[in-house]
Amino acid sequence: MTVGILGPRETGKTVFISLLENAAINYRQREDKDFEFNFHPAIIPDLDQGRIDLLTGKWPGATPLGQPSEYDLRFGYPKRLGGLMTGRVYLDFTIFDIGGEDVSEAARMTGRLPKEDRKKFIDSLSPSMRKILDSNVLVFLIDSGIIETHGRDRPEQYEKMLNYDRDMAQIISLTEWYKAAVTERGVKMYPIVFLTKFDKIETDVLKAIGLPTNFSDVEVRTKLTGIFKNKEREQRRQFGEAIMDRFFPNSLGHLHGASLAGAKIGEGVKYDNLQFFFSSLATKVDDDGTRIPDITTDANGKIFSLSYSEEEYVGFIKYLGEIAKSQPGL
Q: Which of 106, 127, 172, 216 measures 20 to 30 Å from 229, CA to CA?
């Protein structure tokens, strides 16, 4: 099972991977000692550098153009019966991270081609691009920090948000056309949206579109919840989709239209329900006026930690486990 991460430039892919590693470490320490993780020795220096940068108040470097990063991870999820652990399910994850410019350019080029030439273009994609598009789980990172509500006062920023929505829609469309062209009939795909920099959305903005400040306060609008649906996931979905419907409608439309690409080509790719997670990272302004990651310490001022939405990343880790355990043969 593989996990692909997709997003335009400056969406926060490198920070996302660094926080995911930090969450895996803390999850085992604080919540479940029976959970295990292992990273391939060859990638530990590069993978861990991002986490070290954040813990020392620096931003990790962006993924270089044309230089994909491939992270092989193994998670061990405990199996329990009546509160007793009976064993573990070991799951391998390969996460591919490529520069946002590479993805955006590939999407734009595909969009310019006639339909009859798109298959040829797909065959010409680089190996790194093919790997990420071949992933079973596709994580779309969408930058909440780019949201702009004062179009008349800040037209340049408002246009930037509209262009971002267009670029994200192209990326999503690229994945769907690729899946429809190369994926075997009946294969199930798992789309996930991670709204990054969520702390940058002002409370007034959420209130203006009729949302509470937290997804957990959403009143679920379905009678089936609790019987056939997971309430928390339904709250997440309604909360996340309301934000995207207002600020990234083109992207949301393509996420919902995923199956249409396959229908047009005659393939039977299946898409699971869209899942949402929300990433926040506390920051502060340093002496030079630059905003940097905020580091907290314990009462003795000796143990350093990040202030971020760790529960979201832990939830993501658990959700990946659910997906993998549901696969045949596990």
A: 172
Cα distances (Å, whole numbers) of residue 95 to 61, 132, 179:
18, 8, 18
Report d(CA 281, CA 289) in Å as an integer. 18
Q: Both tokens of residue 258?
A: 């995923």
Cα–Cα distance for residue pair 107/163, rounded to 1 Å: 14
Domain ranges of the chain: 2-325
Say what the pTM is: 0.84
Q: CA 52 from chain center: how many Å?
A: 21
Q: What is the CB neighbour count within 10 angstroms for residue 249?
A: 12
Helix axes 44-55, 13-30, angle to 10 degrees: 90
Burial class (CB in 10 A: 0-12, 13-18, 19+), 38: middle
How would you classify the pairing of strands 84-97 and 283-285?
A: unpaired
pLDDT digits (tens, 9 = 90+) for 273-320: 889 999 999 998 888 888 888 888 766 666 678 899 999 999 999 998
d(CA 247, CA 173): 18
